[in-house]
Design goal:
Length: 291
């Protein structure tokens, strides 16, 4: 059976390595990015470059996307030369993170426009997992749409879980981001405390490995924070703050989110200091000068 032709919108920090894994798995992939140069590596590896989202959709059976926010997703779907104007693709798989209600609204609009199905499939694991094909994916959509999308995500993920109807993947991602974002803030606080106290912070991951304080964010971020080595971002401060702001919006004034509120404040301080598009580890710099 022939593999479906894939279109992929967004070849940035996460989308770029995901496309490379799809190409290695033998899929025919067409790519598009608002900044065209970000497609160069994928094109060099065998992908076709599209002139627009609509051009991409015309040559694809399934369209995938990993974009910055809901506004970017709306633009590529429903804007000029958007995917919604094209008949033919069967399914849209969205790896972006956004408000669950926006996902449901966009999915209904797309189905009405050209009968495409929708799977919201936000990811976790950062750029290392994107590169190694070991992402964790939490998905929402109909059982039929998920069954169509699941084998296509195999080259990208170590685990794909269908959480329920459209929007369920995004809601599960918000739960993930509460845990991840708050952990990142606590790791920064702990590493800064160690440095101020005279403890060799570069040995923390070795000393605490396997104990209750250990975690994947700790193992990945603590060494970066200890040495202030922020090259090759695992993810940006702005992206995590966007997701935690969405948590607060979805939860509303009645939600009990004290830890999330503290993490948001630290990340907003880091953004205000000029680190918004830098590695998430730079939040440790925002702790300097705080009482």
């Amino acid at each position: 059976m022939n593999k479906p032709r894939l279109g992929y919108l967004g070849t940035g920090l996460m989308g770029g390595p995901m496309v490379l894994n799809l190409l290695r798995a033998g899929y025919e992939v067409t790519v598009w990015n608002r900044t065209a140069a970000k497609c160069d590596e994928a094109v060099a590896a065998g992908a076709r470059r599209a002139d627009s989202p609509a051009d991409l959709a015309r040559g694809s059976d399934v369209v995938m996307a990993c974009l910055t926010n809901a506004a970017a997703v709306e633009a590529v779907l429903f804007g000029p030369d958007g995917v919604a104007a094209v008949d033919g693709p069967q399914l849209f798989v969205d790896f972006s993170s956004m408000d669950p209600e926006q996902t449901r609204t966009f999915g209904a609009r797309l189905r009405a426009a050209n009968a495409m199905g929708w799977v919201d499939a936000p990811v976790s694991g950062g750029t290392p997992a994107a590169a190694s094909g070991t992402l964790t994916i939490m998905a929402g959509g109909t059982a039929e749409d998920f069954a169509r999308a699941e084998p296509l995500m195999a080259p990208l993920a170590q685990r794909v879980t269908h959480m329920g109807p459209a929007g369920s993947g995004q809601m599960t991602k918000l739960v993930n981001q509460i845990i991840s974002g708050c952990t990142m803030a606590v790791v920064a606080e702990a590493v800064q405390f160690a440095k101020q106290s005279g403890v060799d912070a570069t040995r923390l991951t070795e000393a605490l490995a396997g104990g209750f304080a250990d975690s994947k964010p700790f193992q990945l971020l603590a060494p970066r924070m200890a040495t202030e080595s922020f090259e090759n971002p695992l993810g940006t401060v702005a992206m995590m703050l966007k997701d935690l702001d969405t948590v607060a919006e979805v939860g509303g004034p009645g939600a009990a989110l004290p830890m999330t509120g503290s993490a948001r404040a630290l990340m907003r301080r880091a953004c205000d200091q000029g680190h918004a598009e830098e590695d998430i580890s730079t939040i440790i710099l925002a702790l300097r000068g705080m009482a």
